[in-house]
Input
Amino acid sequence: MKQILREVLFFWKNEEFIRSKEMLRKYFLAVFTLIALVYTFYLFFINVYLLLTSPTEFTLLLIFIDLLYSALLLGMFRLSNTKYSTLCAYILLISITLTITFLFPQTRFTDLLLLYVFPVLAASFIICEWASFPFALFSIACYLIGYFLGGAGLLNHLFFGAILMIAAVSWYVATRLEYAMLAIYHSEKKYQTLVDQNPLCVYEIEGGRTGKWSFVNSKISELSGYAPQEWLAQPNLWLDSVSAKDRESVLSSALSNTHSGITYCEEYSIKRKDGHTIWVSDTYSITSAPGMPVSVQGVLVNITRRKRIEIAQAAIYRISQAAYAVNTPEELYPLIHNALRDMMPADNFYISLYDSKTDLLQFPYFVDEVDQSPVTHKPGRGLTEYVIRKGQPLFAPPEIFNQLVEEGEVESIGAPSVDWLGVPL
Output
């Protein structure tokens, strides 16, 4: 039973079943089979009730037929998403038509039409558009066979024309419905392709700025390191990715920027999946309509390079301004340190001065979370001395530092650094 329920949910939720004619047939077959199964269970319980209140052999036969049909329909439902789906459709409709003919023979026009119309209508949707016509002829043939074998009542000529007209209507409706559904699919596919090819990260959020992300294109992978499926699967991932220093302002903007039809733009930093921090420009607008949830559509642009240039320019300007405002170098060093903190993590920072006349290295400014300020000494084999010897900037993550140690260029002095950066002036 759990397997059957899983398959019902699979057919119900999987939108791929309207993406092609073949899948559409399988979808309709599953739906019609499920409807027939529910109706068969309904008849089964009715016949069980009749058997308990006024038992007859015919009622017992009907219960047996209901059980047989239920087993057949369950099997067909299980096979509706396989290569045997078309065969299942033929078996289902032929069985229904034969059951109508020999178990429920009718002569009244309305009764005939109501009984035979289901397989004729269903044929256009679960086999092919024009299948309603051969099933209409098959229904007429079954009716004639039942009439001549039974020999009761008058031959109902109106039924022939009516069932053929229903077949024509079924063919037209199925054709137009499939055309409309496939046209919508192809239109969505074109739109999806255009959005995915967009160099910007396009997104949509349902329920407001801090709501659930319902769509994001593939550019989110380049921007954040997360695949679109990962990004959408975690409801709070966007807000969690926003840097702690910018999160409060982003939340404040989410509360204030609520007017529909206005374009908003924000700049903030986010933390990528690999741990690196980047800056993004977020341009979005809000759409709201009566009876519809609030929707936010926007684009994210990586502006890290521009922001770094702006921050560097601001830091240089602050340092140059500070150089004019202070009286001694000792007052300038902390200001340089604070300016650099705006550009990068710089909790550990020092300034060293080398005097070539005395061949001494001194440290007029030294801030470190672990090590104490070194005393003035002659140059050794540290990273500071390496930069002075080479006259070039050095960025030394652990792998570069270990390589320099192996080559005999430097020695490990003090607590190990995660990343070491030195620039000669």
Remarks:
- Confidence is low (pLDDT under 50) at residues 7-18.
- The two ends are 77 Å apart (CA to CA).
- The longest strand covers residues 277-287.
